[in-house]
Amino acid sequence: MQTDIKNELDKSPERVKRMFNSIAGWYDFLNHFFSLGLDIYWRRRSVKLAYSGVCVESVGKFLALDVCCGTGDMLCEFVRFGERLGLSCEFSGVDFSESMIGIASRKLPAISGRLVVGDAMELPFGDNIFCVVSCAFGLRNICDADKGLSEMIRVCQSGGVVAILEFSMPQNRLIKYPYRFYFEYILPKIGELLAWNCDDAYNYLPKSVITFDSPKEIADKMKSKGLNEIKIVPMTFGITNLIYGKKS
Questions:
Q1: What are phi and psi of 162, to 5 degrees?
Q2: What is the 3-state secondary structure (H, E, C) of the chain?
Q3: At residue 83, does pLDDT exceed 80?
Q4: Rounded distance, CA 161 to CA 19, Å?
Q5: In angstroms, how far is the first alpha carbon of the chain from the final one?
Q6: Among 12, 8, 9, CA closest to 119
Q7: Which of 30, 63, 66, 188 gets the highest tally of CB atoms within 10 A of its CB?
Q8: At 70, phi and psi to the nearest 5?
């Protein structure tokens, strides 16, 4: 069943880019609506944990990159947390949806020049630059997720952190089956009513989560690509997980 859905799922760059361009205007509202605002907590906690993995005293400037940055919500949390710590920081974001980058630039005018339209499989940055490289709810949308993960590791500094925040299916039976019913049947209907688009975005969402790697599989791939001290942090009964590790 899962294999059939995976084979049917169109993750071509052209389709995914068109889909996200078409829902960009509704994206933030629907993220908060469908998650009951929990997506804010998920990002905030992820940023705090990503920061904690870096020895900030040893870096002259804290450089962070958010891949598949969308409308910039993860970057907003990075900026907010960096200001609280009083660090010298520089933040960058990349996404291949022009509409998403446009919204992110309006949210974050101070860093708009470092928000670029680009391909996660060919990041437009040199090697070993960033203290933290994050990707929130975007890895599963990359046509070749393994290549995207390799690129994130490539641009991360030695001693830096690569952090993946991603949806997964909860394992607790009391949560798993009601959540899956909501996720597969209720959420797509509401999404299509509120933000109708020709690319069926809110039917794509549950299918992309159900067929994607588990947190353990993502962690294993991180390890195989040279990351260590890998941790998996489940959030909200395992609806989302932060998987992060250090580059040797």
A1: -110, 125
A2: CHHHHHHHCCCCHHHHHHHHHHHHHHHHHHHHHHHCCHHHHHHHHHHHHHHHCCCHHHCCCEEEEEECCCCCHHHHHHHHHHHHHCCCEEEEEEECCHHHHHHHHHHCHHHHHHEEECECCECCCCCCCEEEEEEECCHHHCCCHHHHHHHHHHHEEEEEEEEEEEECCCCCHHHHHHHHHHHHHHHHHHHHHHCCCCCCHHHHHHHHHHCCCCHHHHHHHHHHCCEEEEEEEEECCCCEEEEEEEEC
A3: yes
A4: 30
A5: 39
A6: 12
A7: 66
A8: 55, -130
Query: How far apart (Å, rounded) are the C-alpha atoms in residues 53 and 134?
Result: 12
pTM over 0.85: yes
- Residue 102: partners with Cβ closer than 8 Å, 6 or more residues away: 24
What pLDDT digit, counting tens, does each position of 134-156 carry? 999 999 999 999 999 999 999 99
Handedness of CA 166, 224, 129, 155 (dihedral sign): negative
Give the residues across from 130 on adjacent strands.
Answer: 156
**β 156-167/240-247 pair status:** antiparallel
- The residue behind tokens 């609280």 is 84
Angle between the N-to-C axes of helices 201-210 and 187-194, in degrees from 0 to 180, rounded to the nearest 10: 150
Place of tokens 């992110």: 104
Our CA angle for 235, 97, 69, nearest 5°, is: 35
Neighbours of 86 (CB within 10 A): 7
CA–CA dist 62, 82 (Å, integer): 8
* 34: amino acid identity, one letter: F
